[in-house]
Write a structure and sequence with these properties.
The protein is built from eight helices and six strands. The chain is α/β, with parallel strands linked by helices and about 230 residues long.
Amino acid sequence: LLGWCGAALIARLRRGLAFGERLRRLAGVAMLASVALIASGGDRYLQSAGGWSQALEQRLAARLPQPEQKTILQPIAAPQPSSAMPSLAGGSAWLNSPALTPERLKGKVVLVDFWTRECINCQHTLPYVRDWANKYRAAGLVVIGVHTPEYPWERSLPLLRQAVKDGRITYPVVADNEYAIWNAFGNQYWPAHYIFDARGQLRYTAFGEGDYARQEQVIQQLLQENKA
């Protein structure tokens, strides 16, 4: 069991650090610790405790320096023949705007955000979407919130209006109670982001939380493309 722990620890260290002096020193420390543990009889006690080797490995690995995480900037995908913006028809009501169509949105970079008001992940994403809408509106970005209810009580239009007000949402929101827009996009997630260029071609998608820096980079790139 101790041998297995040492092997697991070495594997963990190899993933976190480059080969070299630091790895050899840490491996030596682990070996000395194992010898001392056996000599003191502590290994029999820990074995009886269950799960000790994994806990030891995790504690030691947590003390190691982690590689810095950086956003990798890569060219965004080129539009494909079948990537035109689907229809936005079928919503039961539009808030903050008259009904919009792909044709009316030509010349604008468009972010379509599928959300629902009781989705906690959507609530976490909202501040970023709202910030992008405000920051890049003058540059040509249009954000459209497609509210597709997950539960029957989320179909209430008055409650949706209140959620839009409470969330300080000023960009267009459409109530997609019959899943017309959801189905047109073939969407399966809350939240889901579809980013279209000024020609109405899909260029980027993001599902769930996170990926915020990359999404903002895509928005900036598409706005820059539109100026060229």
